[in-house]
Design a protein that fits this description.
The protein is α/β, with parallel strands linked by helices. About 25% of the residues lie in helices and about 30% in strands. The protein has a seven-stranded mixed β-sheet with strand order 2-1-3-4-12-11-10. The longest helix is centred in the last third of the chain and has 21 residues. The model has no long low-confidence stretch (mean pLDDT about 95). The chain binds glutamine. The site of glutamine has 11 residues, from helix 4.
Length: about 210
C-alpha cells in the first residue's frame, strides 16, 4: 500500500484518538493547525469536540477558508460529530455557520438531555459495504451528537439509528454523527482510508 498522510484537525476535541487509530492502521498522521499543513495531506479528519470553539479557532488560525477549499478540491474528509456539524449546509436552521460542503442539515445536541450520551449498535444494511468482510453491527458512541435531519440527493446513507441517518457519504466526504474512534471498531476508518487510497491513485493518473 502506498503511504498515506492523513491530517487530523487538532484545534480542539478528540484528535489524538483518531491519530491512534489511523497510525495503528499504517497511515502517517499530521496534526493540522495551520493552512499550509493541508498541502501535505492526502486526506483529513475533522474530529468531534465543540463546534463553536472549533469554528472560532479555525477562523483565528486562518484555516476556515482553507478547510472549505480542501473539501471542494475532492480530498477525502472523515468528519465525526462536531466535524459533521462543520461540514453541513445548515446548522440549527442557519446558514453561514459551517463550511457548507455536505448537502445536509443538522441540529446540534438533538438527542435530548436524558440521552445526551449513549451507545448503540448500528446494523449494516448492505452486506459488504464496510471493509473486512464484517457485516456485524457497528458499535457507536454518541456524545451530545448532532441529528442529521435532511440529506440531499447526492448523499448516500450508510448507517442509521432509529431511522435517522448517522453515517453518510457524499463523494469524498464521509460524515458520522457519532465517535468511531472510541470503540475499537475501525471499519469506518478503514473505509475512509480506502477513499484516500482511491483519491491518491486517481490524482497520480491525472498527473501522469
Ligand atoms: N455537541 C457538540 C457541538 O454541537 C458536538 C459533540 C461532539 O462532537 N461529540 O459542538
Amino acid at each position: 500500500m502506498r503511504s498515506m498522510k492523513i491530517g487530523v484537525l487538532a484545534l480542539q476535541g478528540a484528535f489524538r484518538e483518531h491519530r491512534d487509530v489511523l497510525e495503528r492502521l499504517g497511515a502517517e498522521t499530521i496534526e493540522v493547525r495551520l493552512a499550509e499543513q493541508l498541502r501535505a495531506c492526502d486526506g483529513l479528519v475533522l474530529p468531534g469536540g465543540e463546534t463553536t470553539t472549533q469554528r472560532k479557532l479555525a477562523r483565528e488560525h486562518g484555516l476556515w477558508e482553507a478547510l472549505a477549499e480542501y473539501g471542494r478540491r475532492s480530498f477525502p474528509v472523515l468528519a465525526t460529530c462536531a466535524g459533521t456539524i462543520l461540514l453541513a449546509r445548515r446548522v440549527d436552521g442557519e446558514e453561514g455557520l459551517s463550511l457548507d460542503l455536505l448537502d445536509a442539515d443538522v441540529l446540534r445536541n438533538a438527542y435530548g438531555r436524558q440521552v445526551y450520551s449513549f451507545e448503540a449498535r448500528l446494523p449494516v444494511s448492505r452486506p459488504g459495504e464496510l471493509p473486512g468482510n464484517d457485516d456485524g453491527p457497528v458499535p457507536a458512541i454518541f456524545i451530545r451528537a448532532p441529528r442529521i435531519v435532511r440529506v440531499g440527493p447526492a448523499v448516500s446513507v450508510l448507517l442509521t439509528f432509529r431511522d435517522d441517518p448517522v453515517a453518510v457519504r457524499q463523494g469524498n466526504l464521509l460524515a458520522l454523527a457519532f465517535h468511531p474512534e472510541l470503540t475499537g471498531d475501525d471499519r469506518l476508518h478503514r473505509y475512509f482510508l480506502g477513499l484516500v487510497q482511491a483519491g491518491k491513485v486517481s490524482r497520480s493518473r491525472k498527473v501522469a
